[in-house]
Amino acid sequence: MNLRLIGVNHKSAPVEVRERLAIPESHLPDALKQLAQHPGIEEGMILCTCNRVELLTNVKNGTADLRGFLRDFFHVDAAQLEPHLYEYREQDAVRHVFRVTSSLDSMVVGEPQILGQVKEAYATARAVGAVHSQLDQLLTRAFAVAKRVRTETAVGSSAVSVASVAVELAKKIFGSLNGKHVYLVGAGKMSELAARHLMAHGAASIFVANRTYDRAIRLAQKFDGQAIEFSRLYDTCDRGDIVITSTGSPKAIFRKEHGELFLSRRKNRPMFFIDIAVPRDVDPEMNKLDGIFVYDIDDLQQAVASHVADRKKEAERAEAIVNTEVERFHQRLQTLDVVPTIVSLQEHLETIRQAEIDRVRGRLGPITPEQEMAIETLTRGIVNKIMHTPISTLKTAAREAEATTIVDTVRRLFNLQEKKAAKSGSDSGAQN
After folding, report:
1. 243 pairs with which residues across the strands?
2. Which terminus of the chain, N or C, has fewer Cβ atoms within 10 Å?
3. pTM as predicted
4. Across 215-277, where does the E strand assignment appear?
5. Model confidence over 8-30: pLDDT tens digits?
6. Contact 211, 185 (CB under 8 A)
7. What would you measure as the largest C-alpha separation in the chain, in angstroms?
8. What is the DSSP letter of 75?
9. Among this protein's residues, is 237 annotated catalytic?
10. What whole-number distance in Å separates Cα of residue 281 and Cα of residue 277?
């Protein structure tokens, strides 16, 4: 396994950079197919959320140009992107995947949404054939690690999310949400989470606008709200005191002229936009209008700060679990590396045992079933004793740096290399 991971997140890159790398959900399968076909890529997965865009790959001989893929697929200037990129390999990549899946690398440590987002990214990658073997093992283990972190620590207690932090920010602005009207633009999971938090904190009513009207209806019905056809967005958005927007649109859907229109209809009563979309739904120019206040995904980090101290101790426990699991995963991979040699050794000695029994069988004359069983037991016992030391040595060596040397030594001692080469030659006649 030659793991390589490259990406940007909320810590390495501002939203202006992240939104240039955002991939709409409908385009993700095509992006995965292009990644899988990129030179040097054996397997690949793309994780794209409002806070991160990451490529996780298993590469052939460590030669894949992941920066080249980013440059070509997103049509971005490599020089502008480079200062914001991070890259991990092998064990460091495993650790990063485990931390991300366990919500230890999230803007809000312990938020529950990231696990579902990783699972969705994994399912999409598997569906298009971009993940099929090595990454399968890694992601399956990552989900188990996340479950262990969630079960054995309180890092996810009083669970917060980007949506709940957005609501917390709105409460700080208004003092209270009682009687406030909320307008949700986009009917996705993030919008539903925001709606649940808002209603729990006293919001008077909820309006939902979505490009797919049926989804807007379904979400509005859950909260006794009102669905709005997306074509009426600009005619109705001024009804909201708080607008939470997360549409996945490639361009801003709210611009300065829209803000001016809303303010005139509201007789200059203030209006708050919480933009949790990447790319952003709200043009930053809107924030220059008196009476319009815009907060994007990066602004939410200020609200996150209050959660950091409370979760620090639990996060440390979670990090210890991740470190233990990274080491276990590494040892398991190393153990798998010696399995072919162990199997070859067992087959080699079993072949010798059977050949020796067949060679002397004619000299023994007629033998009873009891005698046959005694010969089997005797010879198998001898072979097992001979195999015990080399197999134990191989399993122990799998965890050490000199594993390759010991594997080669065992193969030479028992003539396994020559046997393997002869088999390959007879099968294909083309390998050297």
Report:
1. 183, 273
2. C
3. 0.71
4. 226-229, 242-245, 271-275
5. 999 999 999 999 999 998 999 99
6. no
7. 111
8. T
9. no
10. 6
φ, ψ of residue 85 to 5 degrees: the values are -80, 145
- Is the preceding peptide bond at 279 cis, omega within 30 degrees of 0? yes
Q: Strands, E, within 246-368: which ranges?
A: 271-275, 292-295
Counting every residue written for the chain, the total comes to: 432
162-302 to CATH, choices 3.40.50.720, 3.40.1000.10, 3.40.50.300, 1.20.81.30 = 3.40.50.720
In the structure encoding, which two tokens stand for residue 367, read together? 């033998």
Residues 243-299: pLDDT tens digits? 999 998 999 999 999 999 999 999 888 899 999 888 999 999 999 998 898 988 888
- For the chain, the domains span 3-156, 162-302, 333-376+395-425
Q: Strand runs (DSSP E) across 192-231, as ranges?
A: 205-210, 226-229
* Cα torsion 161, 166, 170, 173: sign: positive
Residue in 8, 50, 142, 326 annotated catalytic:
50
Six token digits for residue 305: 């700060």
